[in-house]
Amino acid sequence: MRAEELALASCSQGLEIRCVWSEKELVFSFGGGLVPGTPDGMFETWDGALTCVQVVRVPLVPGFDVGEAQETLAQTVLTKVVKSQRWLRATHVVPNDFVIFCWLPFEVPEDVLTHAEALMERVRQLDHRFVLQVRVPAVPGSLFPARFACNHQLRKAFARTVSESDITAYGSDDEETDDESCEWDITWFWDLDLDDVAEAQEAGLRECTQTCRVEAGIAV
């Protein structure tokens, strides 16, 4: 959880935060189901701006050349964008920004970062809500275990490749007619401690709470 906490702190630095939701709280808010692409966190500022944050540790290994590093980072970003769009369609959340926050295990050549930034610019032409942030932790070992990504090539051989064509244009007919849905209420457990959530559910709080909708990132 350290990677998620540090990423959320970085994204919210300098902002006046009204409310923060963890991944666990978001799962409770959407009927207890972990929808693919559920953000690792979400926060709202006092001006009503809603930001989702999806955190990922990129599986780079020291032996990669520039091309392999570019491909790995690009696939990681695209996979997260596609899954995050799926979550957004299912929950009807409308954030101002959806941050794909990538932790790298070590510094990479500038060409790798430039390639990822160019990719995100093309993504934003289809869905302007997405933002890319790439960071290397001050102490890499704190977020990346010793044998992190050691079986990446094996996983890659069996994984489905995601391309830019898998991204749905925001506001397009394809997105609006998507049949995925998930009942939710962003204000569930607003005033409860996380430890009280299970008890509140058993008491029937979820059944008697009216469903809210989000417009322009503000729960009403």
Summary keywords:
220 residues, alpha/beta, 5-stranded mixed sheet, two-stranded antiparallel ribbon, globular, disordered C terminus
Question: Strands, helices and their partners?
Answer:
Layout (H helix, E strand, L loop, with lengths): L1 H11 L4 E6 H7 L11 E5 L4 E8 L8 H26 L5 E7 L6 H17 L3 E6 L16 H7 L14 H4 L20 H6 L2 H4 L5 E2 L2 E2 L1
Parallel strand pairs: 3-4, 4-5
Antiparallel strand pairs: 1-2, 2-3, 6-7
Describe this structure in words.
The protein has about 220 residues and is of the alpha/beta class. It has 8 helices and 7 strands. The protein has a 5-stranded mixed β-sheet, sandwiched between helices. Strand 4, helix 4 and strand 5 (about 130-135) form a beta-alpha-beta unit. The longest helix has 26 residues, at about 65-90. The chain is globular and about 45 Å long. The two termini are about 30 Å apart. Residues about 180-220 have low confidence and may be disordered.
